[in-house]
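Kindly inspect the following:
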Amino acid sequence: MNESLFRTPLIEARMTADVTMPNFIKALTQGTRVVELPPDFASQPDQLERAAEIVRQHHREYKFHDAMPLAYYTYIASPGRSYRFTTGGRLIGSFHDQPIVAYVQTKDGKRFTFGD
C-alpha cells in the first residue's frame, strides 16, 4: 500500500473464508467491520491492550454474526505493520497485513470505494 494513502491506524474485522454473501454486500458492509483509530494510537505504550479491548467491544456489538461471521481482527498500526487478535481479543501475533479496499464497480467501469 502506498504510505500516502494510509491515513490512520485501524482495526479491521476479517470474515471467515466460508462467507458466501455476494461481493457487493461484502463491500457495502465493509464499513461496519472497520474501526478507525486516532492518528497517535500506535505510538501509545498500551496500544495492544487498548486494541484488544476495542476488538472485544466490536465483537459484542457486531450485528452480522450469522450471515458474515468473523474469523479474526487485524490491528493495522502502519503500512505493513499489523497485529492479529482473536474475536475474543487475544493477541495472535504480528503480521504484514494491508487494509482491505472494498469497492463496487458499475458496468461502465466507475468505482465506488467504501471506508475512504
Remarks:
- The longest strand covers residues 70-78.
- The longest helix spans residues 47-61.
